Amino acid sequence: MMMSDLTPWGRNRTAPVPSGNDENNPFLALQREMNRVFDSFLRGSLVASTLAPLGWTATGPHVEVSETEQEVRIVAELPGLEEKDLAVTLHDGVLILSGEKKAESSGAVYSERWHGQFQRSLQLGPDVDPDKVAASFRNGVLTVTVAKRPEAQRQVKRIPISG
C-alpha cells in the first residue's frame, strides 16, 4: 500500500504522495486553498475559535501519517486527554481514533477550553495486518503503528550501476 491510498486524490494509484513542502504541486495548492476557505468560513464560530489553538480541526485532531515498506505509522496530537479517554480500533483497513474530553465543573462564567467527543477515520487499505497493531500514548501524543501483511511488503532489489 502506498501513501496515495490514504489521500482522497490518490486512491487506486501508485503515484508518490506529494510532500508538504512541494510549493509547485497543484494538489497541495488546492488543498491549502480549500483549508483556507473552510478556516475563513468557520472563523468566528465557537467551534473554530475553541479548536484552532489546540491544533484541532472541525473533524478531529491533526494527524501525521508516514509509511515504510513494513508499516504505517499514525501520530495524533491530543493535548489535554488521558489514555482512558481514547479508543483506537481497526476494522476492514480503516483506523478509527475516537475519544472524549469531559467538561470540568469549575464554575467558570466564561471558558474557551474545549470539551466533547471526536472521531477521526483513516483509510489504511487492505495491505495492513489487523493482528499487528500497536498504540502508545505519552505527553498528549498518540502513536499507532500498523504492520503491513508480508505479501504487501515489496521486495526491494538493489541494482548495481556500472559506469
From TrEMBL:
Entry superkingdom: Bacteria
Record InterPro entries: A-crystallin/Hsp20_dom (IPR002068), HSP20-like_chaperone (IPR008978), Small_HSP (IPR031107)
Domain SHSP: 54-163
Gene3D superfamilies documented for this protein: 2.60.40.790
SUPFAM superfamilies for this protein: HSP20-like chaperones
Region (Disordered): 1-24
Family assignment from sequence similarity: Belongs to the small heat shock protein (HSP20) family.
PANTHER family: HEAT-SHOCK PROTEIN 20 FAMILY MEMBER
Protein's recorded name: HSP20 family protein
